[in-house]
């Protein structure tokens, strides 16, 4: 088991990529704190996965609220005795022509998708420094690498996550803290549920592998980056995109 005895936090862990990552981390032997704003689903997932050997707890955390993030890290350390891993995954989609995008919508996307990732890293780093090391994985996107129409705030946030990941990797390498990101292509999760069939078919056609990704395929990349199998990988932005950006 890749993560035997490790202590992890997954933000946005109640749904989609986060949920599958929680499932895989638990299967790999980690104790996990699920952080989300969807309390009913998060609590249910924690109850389903916890066993005598594996602690799985849920905490309400809005990643735009620094006090809640600080409390989340404190709770993980109190429950597990340490923090080895955080997957900063909570995020929202945003689609609007840029000339019609309100400043409020712009700010909300940046607040959750970029500021939230920074704040989680800030507080996780404090715990990891005390623990002698750790592994931070941020959720970016193909849209941190390439542009797309009508996604200005999302693309700007994910581009920020890509380079924030590099900056933190360089800054904390000497503390034995690795910082990486996963950059998914389009993945079949509730985030895509608003899209009509024609749009989904178009998105499928943009992936050379000829399909959308599955959340468990991103989860596998995250648990790899979290594990000692990735011990010489830091500052990487791992594209898991069915070839989307290779064209
Ligand atoms: N699905 C895709 O195609 C795709 C592609 C690239 C990147 N991503 C990224 O993957 C991550 C997960 O997306 P998903 O597709 O699993 O979506 P999802 O909607 O299934 O899950 C997102 C989770 O984040 C939670 N969340 C939203 N706002 C939050 C907040 N303020 N604080 C805490 N939790 C919050 C939601 O409650 C939900 O449980 C996001 O960062 C997203 O940008 C998704």
From TrEMBL:
**GO biological process assignments:** bile acid metabolic process
State a single Gene Ontology molecular function: oxidoreductase activity
Instruction: Name the UniProt key words of this record, in alphabetical order.
Output: Oxidoreductase
- Matching Pfam families: adh_short_C2
According to its UniProt record, which protein family does this protein belong to?
Answer: Belongs to the short-chain dehydrogenases/reductases (SDR) family.
Q: What is this protein called?
A: SDR family oxidoreductase
Which species is this record about?
Ectobacillus ponti
- Cite the source lineage: Bacteria, Bacillati, Bacillota, Bacilli, Bacillales
């Amino acid at each position: 088991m890749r993560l035997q005895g490790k202590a992890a936090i997954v933000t946005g862990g109640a749904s989609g990529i986060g949920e599958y990552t929680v499932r895989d981390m638990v299967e790999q032997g980690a104790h996990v704190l699920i952080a989300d704003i969807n309390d009913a689903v998060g609590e249910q997932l924690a109850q389903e996965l916890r066993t005598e050997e594996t602690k799985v707890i849920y905490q309400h955390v809005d990643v735009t609220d620094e006090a809640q993030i600080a409390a989340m890290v404190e709770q993980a350390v109190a429950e597990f005795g340490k923090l080895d891993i955080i997957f900063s995954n909570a995020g929202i989609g945003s689609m609007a022509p840029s000339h019609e995008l309100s400043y409020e919508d712009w700010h909300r996307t940046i607040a959750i998708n970029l500021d939230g990732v920074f704040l989680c890293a800030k507080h996780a780093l404090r715990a990891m420094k005390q623990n002698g090391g750790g592994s931070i994985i941020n959720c970016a996107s193909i849209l941190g690498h390439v542009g797309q129409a009508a996604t200005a705030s999302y693309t700007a946030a994910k581009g920020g996550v890509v380079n924030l990941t590099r900056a933190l990797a360089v800054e904390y390498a000497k503390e034995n803290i690795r910082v990486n990101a996963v950059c998914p292509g389009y993945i079949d999760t509730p985030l895509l549920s608003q899209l009509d069939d024609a749009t989904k078919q178009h998105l499928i056609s943009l992936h050379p592998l000829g399909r959308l990704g599955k959340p468990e395929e991103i989860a596998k990349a995250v648990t790899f980056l979290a594990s000692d199998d990735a011990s010489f990988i830091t500052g990487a932005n791992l594209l898991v995109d069915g070839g989307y950006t290779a064209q």
